[in-house]
User: Which sequence fits this backbone?
């Protein structure tokens, strides 16, 4: 339903880059090169751009086709969650796990976008089921898919290897080559793809991940102790944000109740072998949480909610497994209802305009699309050229990067000292407090549209002179 309702929505947030610009470059250049030009290259494998360009060639280049190109992965995510519930839940209906995880604001916010993180999420869940159901062939497919979608996907593959080594250590510590080979074999295609891509990319560009002149280079600045502490506070905020705060209540209760037997709490006996335990999701949670937090803490600009999506889903999954083992049915239902309410209401969290938030990590950004259309209609009616309007991410650049319209006109990067008009919305995080105060104090709001906590405003310099 959401895909159908949002099939005409523009590319939003980082999908302007990963979908609009990457996909169109391969489409218009007819796959002339397997790599992107340096101006568009953010260091990731461009497979997502290949996929979109191929879909456009088959079904036509449009926003609707782009959104429906994500639908198979959305269906795949639901399918994998059902399989997870069948694997681990004994007393709780699969519907609880489905609704709680599908309503997760980060996943739901990404699910209405043309986002490579949806592809990553599908292959991540497929990999988990492949491990727990012992399907090495599907694990190879999942690991290859993760490695192909992004460098973060490559990190997730490494974390899955670490997880399997930890849970398999009782046999691996005997150092029998066959035990190591059984773990490593499904990951070889992903490892070969990663090595080949990084080698080809380095040979053609001379860099991996980023280079000093890259637009994304500031995001990879290494931080000192003060910066790490700041990011640690942000990490804590991410773990409480968008309703996730309430998930810690059942989590702490379960940890306290089973503080001495956490392994039994999350273990699942294999049928007919009561003493043997399946790999514990809590080990996976620790592996993902620690490894994904390293880059989050050490670098300046890698703090987006979606970067933590695998560990967020794993955390909710672990809590639900713990609740499944509770003998008190009423308490179990209370906590499940609390989790469902937390995820549902988390999609309505909107902070004051001077607090930056991850708008692609919540369904709360949905009204922005119609408000933007109203503003574009106003600008056309007022005969105001888009190039005369300064603004900030995610609206800088040609409209065609967002709506596939072919229109090369678009808003320019803001300069409050020179611009006649400024377009500002609370979905834009790159306006400083001083700039917001200056606009509200010294400029004239000539157009303002608002809906469900989201707004967009056109400010004009009072003298209208450069």
Assistant:
């Amino acid at each position: 339903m959401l895909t159908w309702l949002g099939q005409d929505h523009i590319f939003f947030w980082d999908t302007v880059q990963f979908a609009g610009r990457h996909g169109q470059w391969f489409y218009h250049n007819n796959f002339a090169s397997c790599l992107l030009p340096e101006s568009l290259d953010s260091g990731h494998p461009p497979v997502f751009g290949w996929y979109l360009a191929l879909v456009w060639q088959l079904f036509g280049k449009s926003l609707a086709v782009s959104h429906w190109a994500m639908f198979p992965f959305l269906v795949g995510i639901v399918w994998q969650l059902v399989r997870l519930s069948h694997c681990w839940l004994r007393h709780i209906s699969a519907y609880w796990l489905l609704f709680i995880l599908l309503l997760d604001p980060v996943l739901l916010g990404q699910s209405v976008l043309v986002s490579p993180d949806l592809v990553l999420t599908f292959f991540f869940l497929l990999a988990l089921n492949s491990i727990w159901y012992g399907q090495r062939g599907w694990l190879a497919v999942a690991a290859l898919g993760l490695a192909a979608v992004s460098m973060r996907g490559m990190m997730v593959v490494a974390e899955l290897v670490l997880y399997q080594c930890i849970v398999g250590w009782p046999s691996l510590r005997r150092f029998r080559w066959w035990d190591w080979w059984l773990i490593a074999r499904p990951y070889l295609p992903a490892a070969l793809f990663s090595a080949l891509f990084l080698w080809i990319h380095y040979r053609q560009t001379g860099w991996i991940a980023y280079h000093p002149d890259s637009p994304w280079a500031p995001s990879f600045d290494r931080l000192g102790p003060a910066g790490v502490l700041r990011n640690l506070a942000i990490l804590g905020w991410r773990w409480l944000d968008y309703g996730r705060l309430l998930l810690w209540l059942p989590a702490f209760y379960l940890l306290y109740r089973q503080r001495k037997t956490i392994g039994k709490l999350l273990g699942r006996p294999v049928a007919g072998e009561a003493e043997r335990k399946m790999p514990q999701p809590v080990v996976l949670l620790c592996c993902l949480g620690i490894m994904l937090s390293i880059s989050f803490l050490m670098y300046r600009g890698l703090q987006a909610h979606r970067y933590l999506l695998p560990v967020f889903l794993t955390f909710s999954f672990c809590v639900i497994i713990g609740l499944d083992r509770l003998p008190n049915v009423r308490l179990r239902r209370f906590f499940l209802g609390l989790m469902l309410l937390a995820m549902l209401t988390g999609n309505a969290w909107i902070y004051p305009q001077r607090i930056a938030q991850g708008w692609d990590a919540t369904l709360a950004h949905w009204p922005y699309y119609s408000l933007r259309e109203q503003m574009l209609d106003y600008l056309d009616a007022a005969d105001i050229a888009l190039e005369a309007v300064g603004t900030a991410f995610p609206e800088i650049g040609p409209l065609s990067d967002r709506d596939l319209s072919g229109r090369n006109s678009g808003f320019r990067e803001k300069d409050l000292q020179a611009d006649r008009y400024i377009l500002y919305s609370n979905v834009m995080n790159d306006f400083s407090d001083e700039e917001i105060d200056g606009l509200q104090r010294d400029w004239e709001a000539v157009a303002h549209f608002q809906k469900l906590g989201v707004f967009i405003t056109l400010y004009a310099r009072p003298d209208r002179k450069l």
Summary: Confidence is low (pLDDT under 50) at residues 268-279. Residues 367-460 form one domain. The two ends are 47 Å apart (CA to CA).
